[in-house]
Structure formats: structure tokens, C-alpha cells
Design brief:
- The structure is a homodimer.
- The first copy, chain A, is of the alpha/beta class.
- Chain A folds into 3 domains: 1-45, no CATH class; 48-254, 3-Layer(aba) Sandwich (Rossmann fold); 266-319, no CATH class.
- Chain A is 49% helix and 13% strand.
- Chain A is built from 12 helices and 7 strands.
- Chain A has helices at 6-14, 18-29, 35-42, 62-75, 126-139, 154-160, 176-186, 202-214, 237-253, 256-287, 289-299, 305-316, and strands spanning 50-56, 80-86, 112-118, 144-150, 165-170, 191-194, 226-228.
- Chain A has a 7-stranded parallel β-sheet with strand order 3-2-4-1-5-6-7, sandwiched between helices.
- In chain A, α7 crosses α8 (202-214).
- The longest helix of chain A is centred in the last third of the chain and has 32 residues, at 256-287.
- At the A-B interface, α3, α6, α7, α10 and α11 of A face α3, α6, α7, α10 and α11 of B.
């Protein structure tokens, strides 16, 4: 599919045309000029989908849980878009994620659109790509957009900031190390799931979470509920969907929700600037004689990187008044 | 301790003064003006330390392994600096990492300098902070600088790019999910450690790793060795140190090492620009009337974020000709 114009592309996507959306996403992947023009036309039509972030450590069963949620929303007649963030390797082309197999049951459902995004080689573009794809899925008319990420690093935290509601999936029997990570995710979780809660230690995991919640310096407007599930047996998924619905309701009525939306917008704008500047500077450093010379001087420790950064910025920006896309 | 001048501070740190180094690190944390001036004076004196990155999933025992390596290097009479990246929470002040206790045995050793760095709230500044602290530890005269991070997300990968040699620690008995992550870390590992190799499944873990290595499209100059350890019993640590020494030797003789150093320098320079631009833009968006108005327009979907990013960049940079520090 070729687009005659950005407007034609946007119209097709707004009408829910899957091929047009897939084509735009490939253009975004390949950074083809004009992709941003289409996104700009779509943006006024976004904000209708409920954007759900699901994150958790490897082995927490979050992919199975995601598949269960997709099934539940499909029974409610909702259209579901899924963005699966893959920690994949350039060697394998992202093909080895056995986990994604659990979503294959929806491969032939025209009301479910699943898109994978590899984290590797993103050169800091991961949160931009996430935002872009969520905008497309939203503009296509999906009622629910699910972003699934592995892990709870800063990267994943940045990604889930894109979501309205973030579900953090944990499992019983976690060590000290995980306790630490739990603390890091307290901030981002709107809902906790203790999955595999038929295992020993489920009560303790719930208790640990409640204990961590009491460490918070002030009582939040929304205290994240802790939902027990056994995703493999489809247990607790209704309760999770109920908790998600309650959080959506909370967002619609809370005075803090406007601040939250603005915070998210500021983060997205800052991310766009950061990534486009980085890309421009990186290109200048690696692909121009002057840039390569500067890098060699820093490597030889004749120029320090702080001065070099000033130089690179001064050299790059005047030549790129239109940094974006 | 107060510094009368940047030169005085740099001289004290170059002489190995621990209090001066700690003071500079606090200045860097608090983004106090002048800290970068000191770093610039230190930079010509860096590049002497062997910088070792150690990463692995929670529960892999990498902190114990790090402690064992510190002990080994101390026996060789080397000064060791450690930068421990904590996925800590602002709620806890980073105090709950029980793992770090394993390094406490070196708390009174004046030849070991341990610094923690919290990942939370870094606003993209984590790789800059890592670089800065490594420069300080290097300039102080540490023979070995160890950067320890948890996890293998993009963030950790960025951090270990600072290292000369990166050790990835795995344990036997990993599920599908971990297999995927392994693929992502193939690129960054110079040495693999299968820790807890007295557990069932150690042979399989080693076999899996070798299998993944065969997926690489071309044979690298350096094929990462796979070292078995039982850190808790101090087994295999000599072999690991030997593998590290061999990689150091390889770097010194390989024609690719200059390209690697330049790649790292370009990455560091780009990171400095990216983070300083982001900080400036973020401040403009959140702390000025015009910035807040723009964010509100984007939130209301009357302005799209791509145009807003252009505006924010145009508004920010002319007002901040000196973006750094």
C-alpha cells in the first residue's frame, strides 16, 4: 500500500484500515519522511482508547495474563490493540520470544491488532516509538490499547508512563533483590497483580506489598489494589478487569487526573526533543569529518567530553532548524 | 570540605583524597555549578583504570561475585572503586538493598571506594552520572573500577557501554523469558558467568549460551568465554579474573579497540547533549507560563506533540547557549 497523501493515510487509519496502519508503522520503523505528518493528522483523534500498561519481571506470566485480558475484552465486544515490547536481539530478528505465542490465538481476530517493537538498537527512540504506535492504535478506534513490557528498568518505567493505568505483575517467592525492584515500581503501579497465586508464598508476597505501601510518605488518592490471579487457569482475571475499570473511573473523576495527563504530555514532548537532538548529534559525530575528529580528540583525552558536547550541540542545531521527525 | 577553586578540588582528587572525591560526587548529585569544571580538569588524567561492568538479573548472585572480585583485586594490591547502581525507591532512600551488605566487609578498607547511585528520578541522567563517577574513580587512581547494575534493560546496556569489559552473570534453570533476554545481552557480554553452577541445569545453561553464540551472524574477534562460578563458596573467581585479564590484553592489542573507544566516546558525548537538552526543555515546559500553556494545549489535543517539540526546542535553546552542565 502506498499513500497518495498524508491526509489519505490518516483517513484510512481513522477508518480502522489495518493495512494502512501497518504501513504507517513500517514507515515509522524506517524513519521515512512523512510518517510524522500522518501522526500529526491522527493526534487530534487520539485520547479515546483506554491505554493499559502491563509490566513485570521475566517469568511472572504477564504475557499469559495479557492474553487472558484480551480474551475478556473481546467478549465485551471491545477492539483491542497490543504493543508488545520485545527485548530482542538483532541476531535473531526478535523471533525467539516464545512468550508471544500465547497471543497467537488472536492472530486471526480482525478486532485484535498486535504489534511488536524491538528494544534493541533503538538509540533512545523507544519511548518515542511507543508513543507513536499507541497514537496509531488509539486513532484506529481500538477501545483498549495494551502496552506489555518485560522488566522494570527505567526504560520500562518510561514506557508505562504512556499508559493511563499500569499493572505490575509479580509472583510469589521473590528474593531480596526483587524486594528492591518492587520499591522502584511502587511509584508506577496503579494495580498490583500477584500471579501464580496458587504457589506457596502468595500470602507473603501480598503482605510484602502491603508493607511496602505503608512506607509511602503520604497516602495517595489511589491506593493500588493487589489482585491475585492464576493466569494459566484464567482465575482472577475478572477481578483484575474490575480493578482496571475502577481505576479508569477514578481517573475520570479525580482532580489529579488533569495534572497526570499534563505530566505525561510534558514527558512525551521532552522525549521527542531529546531523541531528535540525540539522533542529529550522533549523526554529526559519526558521519562528518569534523565530528569524527572531535570524537578522536576526546578518545585521546585532548578534549574533554563536556566541552565536546557543547561543540557538538553548537555544530548540529544551526544546521538542523527542523530537527524532527 | 569546601573547594577554594576547581583546580584545588581536582588536585586533591588526583592525589586520591577520598573526602574531596565524595564532596565532588555530592556536588554532581545536587547539580551544583562548578562540578563540571572539576570534571573537566580531571578528564585528561582518566583512562588508566580498568573499567569492569557486571550485570545480571536479580538473584543471580552478582553482588556476591562482585565482593569476591574486590577481595581478589585487593590481594593483588590494587585499589578498587565500585559504582553500584541501585534500582531504589525515593520512598526508602535506597536503603533496602540487602545485597549491598555483601560489600560491607570493605567499608573500612581505605583502598576500596564504594559509591551507590540510585536510578530513580534520574530524568535520563543515569548514563551521564555513571560516566561522571567513573571518571572521578579513575582519576583518583583506582586500578580497577567496577560498575555493578541490576538487570539487562536498555538502561543497563547503556551503563555498561561505559565499561572496558562487561561480565554478564546468569544462573542455571532459566525459563523461556530469560532466554529472550539472554539474546539481548549477547551483544554486550565480553564474558559470561554461570554462577551457582553447583545447581542442576548448569550444563544446560552453558550449552544454551553456546547455542546462542552460534546464532551470531559473523564470528567476532573475541568470543566471550563462559566461566562457571559458585560465588558463595568463592569458586571460579580466579578463573573469572583470568578471563577479565585476557580480555584486557585483547583490548590492548586488537585493532578494533580504537574503534570501540571512539564508539564509546561518541556515545558519551551524545548522551551529555541529549540529557542537557532534555533537562532544559523539561524545565521550560514545567516552569514557565508559555511552557505550561503549550503542555495544556497538547493535553487538550489542540496542538500535537510533534509541533510542540519543535516549539519547545526553539524556545529553549536560544535562551540557553550554555546548556551544560
Amino acid at each position: 500500500m502506498r499513500f497518495a497523501s498524508s491526509q489519505e493515510a490518516a483517513d484510512a487509519i481513522l477508518a480502522g484500515n489495518v493495512r494502512a496502519a501497518a504501513r504507517l508503522m513500517r514507515m515509522l520503523d524506517d524513519r521515512i519522511d512523512g510518517a510524522t505528518d500522518v501522526l500529526r493528522l491522527l493526534y487530534p483523534h487520539t485520547g479515546r482508547a483506554m491505554v493499559l500498561g502491563i509490566t513485570g519481571n521475566p517469568g511472572s506470566g504477564k504475557s499469559t495474563l495479557t492474553a487472558r485480558l484480551i480474551g475478556l475484552y473481546r467478549k465485551q465486544g471491545k477492539r483491542v490493540g497490543v504493543l508488545a515490547i520485545d527485548p530482542s536481539s538483532p541476531f535473531s530478528g526478535g523471533a525467539i520470544l516464545g512468550d508471544r505465542i500465547r497471543m497467537m490465538e488472536f492472530a486471526n481476530d480482525p478486532q485484535v491488532f498486535i504489534r511488536s517493537l524491538a528494544t534493541r538498537g533503538a538509540l533512545g527512540g523507544l519511548s518515542r516509538s511507543t508513543n507513536d504506535i499507541v497514537h496509531v492504535l488509539d486513532a484506529m478506534g481500538h477501545d483498549v490499547v495494551i502496552i506489555e513490557t518485560v522488566g522494570v528498568g527505567q526504560d520500562e518505567i518510561d514506557i508505562v508512563r504512556t499508559a493511563d493505568t499500569t499493572v505490575v505483575v509479580l509472583v510469589p517467592g521473590l528474593g531480596d533483590d526483587i524486594q528492591a525492584i518492587k520499591a522502584g515500581i511502587l511509584e508506577i503501579a496503579d494495580i498490583f497483580v500477584v500471579n501464580k497465586s496458587d504457589l506457596d508464598g502468595a500470602d507473603r508476597a501480598v503482605g510484602d506489598l502491603r508493607g511496602l505501601q505503608t512506607l509511602m510518605s503520604e497516602m495517595p488518592d489511589w491506593l493500588p489494589p493487589i489482585v491475585r490471579t492464576v493466569a494459566a487457569r484464567n482465575e482472577g482475571v475478572d477481578a483484575l478487569a474490575q480493578a482496571i475499570a475502577e481505576h479508569t473511573q477514578f481517573l475520570q473523576t479525580s482532580p489529579a487526573s488533569q495534572a497526570r495527563a499534563q505530566n505525561r504530555a510534558a514527558f512525551a514532548i521532552g522525549g521527542l526533543v531529546r531523541e531528535s537532538v540525540w539522533r542529529s548529534v550522533d549523526t554529526w559525530l559519526r558521519r562528518t569529518d569534523a565530528g569524527r575528529e572531535l570524537v578522536a580528540e576526546v578518545t585521546a583525552r585532548r578534549v574533554d567530553p563536556y566541552l565536546a558536547a557543547q561543540t557538538a550541540l553548537a555544530q548540529t542545531l544551526p544546521n538542523n532548524p527542523q530537527l524532527l521527525p
